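User: My advisor asked me to double-check a structure prediction for 4-hydroxy-tetrahydrodipicolinate reductase before group meeting. I don't want to rely on an old file, so could you generate it fresh from this sequence?
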Amino acid sequence: MTRIKVAVAGASGRMGREVVKMVLGDPELELVAAVARSTTNMDAGRLVGLEPCGVQVTNDLELALVESKPDVLVDFTTPQSAVVNTRLAIKHKVRPVMGTTGFTPEDIEELDKQCKAEGIGGLIAPNFSIGAILMMKFAAQAAKYMPHVEIIEYHGDQKLDAPSGTSVKTAELISEVREELRQGNPKEEETIEGARGGYYQGFRIHSVRLPGIFAQQEVIFGAFGQTLKIRHDSYDRAGYMPGVNVAVKKVMEYAGMVYGFEHFID
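Assistant: Sure, here is a fresh prediction for 4-hydroxy-tetrahydrodipicolinate reductase from the sequence you gave:
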């Protein structure tokens, strides 16, 4: 059996460590590189509390890609690094699986062209949780019948971006089936700036940032005499790993950049 060779960028981060564990625990995958800015010259197995695996953590992504020749790069770094890292991967014909947010529609279009030119697949996924993907799909279905909607997303106070990539992706899926509709009283006035949240296609996205919260999202629909709430809660980063595992394997079958993990599940 030919194993899929995987490099992990952001290996010392909380999500990156889970990815390293997942790869080391799957006989169909082979960890060939682990990249981190803050931790180097350490065995990647030791980094995640396992037995040594023979892969040393490095801080040079391009050198790691050249020397280890992975099939797939899994990236959980920062929004500032995401686009650069994706371009590097494509340049070396490595399939990027990006769990990092920060991509604009223009970035995605450009990266799609680059992937197709190299004949490889790639994935940009705001969320790898299968439960979160179902939440987004259910929300899009509900929006066909209940177009008055608001999104509230909750994350820890150290999250860098707001709104979250998951809430933006949810809003995009809703907007595909719902015509733009400006909600609320037309004479509505904010007495405190931002009180009504971020504006998207006529509805609002609210971002809560507090210590003690991991990741939650609620999509609330309102109609005469009723409301519908669709909510997903994540409690542990390990819950994302089955989705990352599927992505690493499925991306080998695609050409072009795919935006959204929902395209990888039936």
